[in-house]
């Protein structure tokens, strides 16, 4: 008899990838039926899922009654929360779904998490709340009487097509301009491959109980990113390190600390903390199917550059705030922050 997996964020990047992977995998599709949670069951994205024999359920994390309802008779839940207004609000969302999972006697929770910047930095960086909110929710889930595993995606390759696209420098070349060293490393993931990692958990839940999957394809420095983008596009693209003051002065005062600390945390401690590269290599080995490198991603999705002289930091602002926790907000009314 098939078990029901409830997927939050079903019409977004992560949830949609999880559903696609389950439906396309012979083993997983024989073991699981999918219940897709969306705030708008009448959206085209929801209708597309329904046409693929996916059960559609209306659910809103801010409405506990709907959360309880979508988890009835389910066995597993994939929880994706989003930073909408405050750290406390996102944590409350995650707790609401996790508590409902326990109340409905679900067997397993898979939570989309992020590293604790406060803990890893030993309290040096306290302003990166949109990471810490997920880490705090993960800690809470670990206290509950339910099995759980945690999916921690890296930086989205898709961001280089939009918010992190290299900007014209005025001399016919383009640049990635940040207040960190060129050797600062980023773990990269084609977010459309989220399902390959979550699928590994679903294939053997007991194996991954309590584990965090540092879900990325590769770890690449900013300097290497610039080289890959340059080779792919045929344009001269280079990394340029700016000063912290210049970076801070270019941002709204209420966001400067958060965005600067995000960058400096990457430089000082690594995205996943100590041994980030080792964690990524280990996790990549368990993914179901071949993973896409940045070079191959750009072959599939070529980078298009225009001589636009908009301020780079405007793009950085939208990169971190609008896509750091990117989950297609216009489709499912999720919030504005997702994974950097």
Automatic annotation (TrEMBL):
Record keywords, A-Z: NADP
Protein name: NmrA family transcriptional regulator
Family the entry assigns: Belongs to the NmrA-type oxidoreductase family.
Start and end residues of each NmrA-like domain: 1-298
Name of one Pfam family that matches: NmrA
InterPro entries: NAD(P)-bd_dom_sf, NmrA-like, NmrA-like_oxidored
Keyword DNA-binding in annotation: no
UniProt KW Lyase keyword: no
One annotated Gene Ontology cellular component of this protein: nucleus
Source organism of the structure: Aspergillus steynii IBT 23096
Entry coiled-coil feature ranges: none
